[in-house]
Amino acid sequence: MRHRLTTALTAAALLGALTACQAVQDASNAADKTSICLEALRLANFTPSTQNLEQTAADAKKTSEDLTGLAERAADTTLRDAINGMAEQVQSLSVPNLDPTSVTSWAQQKLNAFNTLAQACA
């Protein structure tokens, strides 16, 4: 009888420890997702400049690479896909052909990608 009680208490303690570990892991994942989302949303605010095309091209490339790096860190598939979508959108900016029409079209598509990212972060 005493052996069963000891076994039951040990099992309960292990279950409690596993539950606590899972809670810590969940909190850690939430913190990671939050930090990734904050950085991704900051990067998603990329705005092209028609004044300096070379700088805009360099900034678009760097922003896209940074977003791709964040996507690789994201454990959540929906978030990873949303960040990659934003990276692709930033990268798709055709810098040599920046004109008001192309920038307007690109900005609308970027807004759609931003909304997808914001929803994945919610």
TrEMBL record:
Signal peptide span: 1-22
Key words of the record: Signal
Official protein name in the record: Small secreted protein
Species, as recorded: Actinokineospora diospyrosa
Lineage: Bacteria, Bacillati, Actinomycetota, Actinomycetes, Pseudonocardiales
